[in-house]
Structures are given as structure tokens and as C-alpha cells.
# Entry
Amino acid sequence: MLPIPSLPPPQPCASSRPPSRVRRPAPAPHGLADVLRQHKDMKLGMLVVALLTGSITAWADNTYFSTHLYAKFRVKGCTNCHDFFEKKLGGLSYKSHKGRTPDRCVNCHTKDVTGFTHADDWFARPDLYTSGMNSQRTCEATKTALHAQFKNETLAARDLEKHLFEDPRVLWGIEQATPNSGRLPEEKKEVDLVKGGLPEWKEQVRAWIQAGMKCN
Ligand code: HEC
Ligand code: HEC
# Structure
């Protein structure tokens, strides 16, 4: 501990100073910025910033689908495949992949490329969530695809976790979840993958599921 410095001696009264040193009273602070600007003690400023940052983190409620998951469900690594048969969204089956039938996917998206145990797990299908959806619809489409409305909540939660944590296509779309995540034929690579890796993904998906899979 440093010794506490003794207080400075009391200032001489204003009338003894030369007139040039008489200052106008500082304007009353209006907002937080004013208070911070006027306050000479940096430590107080830092404390206020720390408190604010803390409350912003608390506001970012990770039980909402919209907080973290919506952005992660929108990466190209997921939507390029979910949009595959959507003409309006520039689906690949109307562009570079025109005329490529389901039995041919494995010719190029081989095990060596995808890292899948079964190469034929690389396939596309309509009626999934797609890139054009807002957070609410993305969430609802995900639950609909799993037929969540017909299941006990614990079964729906289990199925959703299983899909989102173990499905080879999902893992392919998460950065570094597998050594082959993002790999495409002809040495191509999808770089817009789910950031933050598998541990963060699991934590955020669990928070949403445990809070009841609400679509807000
Ligand atoms: C190679 C294409 C492909 C990629 C890449 C892909 N998906 Fe899918 N996804 C599918 C197909 C096909 C289905 C339907 C599975 C079925 O019918 O058995 C599906 C189904 C789903 C479902 C619905 C649940 C279900 O069991 O049907 C969710 C949720 C989902 N995908 C999320 C994702 C996320 C998140 C990513 C990216 C991290 C992703 N997918 C990447 C093709 C893909
Ligand atoms: C002749 C080889 C070939 C066949 C067959 C093929 N693909 Fe591809 N696929 C590629 C190549 C190369 C790319 C990367 C460049 C591009 O987008 O065309 C690619 C990219 C993709 C992507 C984009 C992934 C991303 O996130 O960027 C998807 C989705 C996809 N293929 C799905 C399929 C499906 C589903 C089938 C079967 C119906 C299929 N492919 C058949 C060669 C092929």
C-alpha cells in the first residue's frame, strides 16, 4: 500500500488571484459524456465504462434465437446448400449445378473432400430454412423441419441437439469443427462458415434450447 498523500493546503481566496486567472464556472453537465469529459479522474471514467459494458453483455440475452444463432444460421456454409433448389435466391441447382442429379453429388463431393463417413450425406433438399428469412422464420422453419410441434418438448430438444451437434453437414459448416469443414471439390473452399468454433456453438445452442427454443 502506498502512503495516503496528505491533502493540499487550502487555496487562497479568489480575490487574491490576478483577474486573468478567474475562470467562468463550468457549465452544468447534461449527459454522461459531459460528466466524463469534466471529470478529471480517469479511474471513475473507466469504472463507468466497465459498468456499461457489463450491462450491455447482460442485455445480449443468449436464450433468444436472434442474439447469436440467427447470424450463425445465415452463413453461406449453411445457406448455399439450403437454398440449392430456390430459384429466387440464386440456388445452385439453377446455376453452376444445373442438371446435376442427386446420385452425382458424391462424384465430386467425395469423402476425401467432405471428410464424411458416408459421402452420400452430402445432399440438398427444399423446405428448409433459407437465406431470405428473418430470425423468427429461420427459427420456426428449423423447428418445423424437425416436426417439433408434434413432439414432447424434451424429445424435440434432444433431436435438435443431435442434429445441430452431430449432423455431418452442420459440422462441415462450422469453422474448424472438423479438418474438412468448408472444403469443396477442385480445391475450392467456403470461407463464410460459423465463426467461434464448435464449443461456442454448443454453448449458444444449449442456452436457446434450455430456455424452451423460443423464436424471439
Ligand atoms: C450439403 C448441404 C447442407 C449443408 C452444408 C448444411 N445443411 Fe442443413 N440440411 C441439409 C439437408 C439436406 C437437410 C435435411 C436433412 C434430411 O432430410 O434428412 C438439412 C436440415 C437441416 C435442419 C433441419 C433439421 C432436420 O433434421 O431436418 C437444420 C436446422 C439445418 N439443416 C441446419 C444447418 C446449419 C446450421 C448448417 C450450417 C452450419 C447446415 N444445416 C448446413 C443440407 C445441408
Ligand atoms: C461435377 C462436380 C460436382 C458435382 C456433381 C456436384 N458438385 Fe457441388 N460443388 C462442386 C464445386 C466445384 C463446387 C464449388 C464451386 C461452385 O460453387 O460451383 C461446389 C459447391 C457446392 C456447394 C456450395 C457450398 C458452399 O457453401 O459454397 C453446394 C451446396 C453443393 N456444391 C452441393 C452439391 C449437391 C447437393 C450436389 C448433388 C446434387 C453437388 N453439389 C454436385 C462440384 C460438384
Notes: The two ends are 51 Å apart (CA to CA). Residues 76-77, 80-81, 84, 92, 96-97, 100, 102, 104-105, 107-109, 123-124, 184-186, 188, 190 surround heme C (ligand 2) (CB under 6 Å). Residues 12-20 have pLDDT under 50 and may be disordered. Strands lie at 183-184, 188-189.
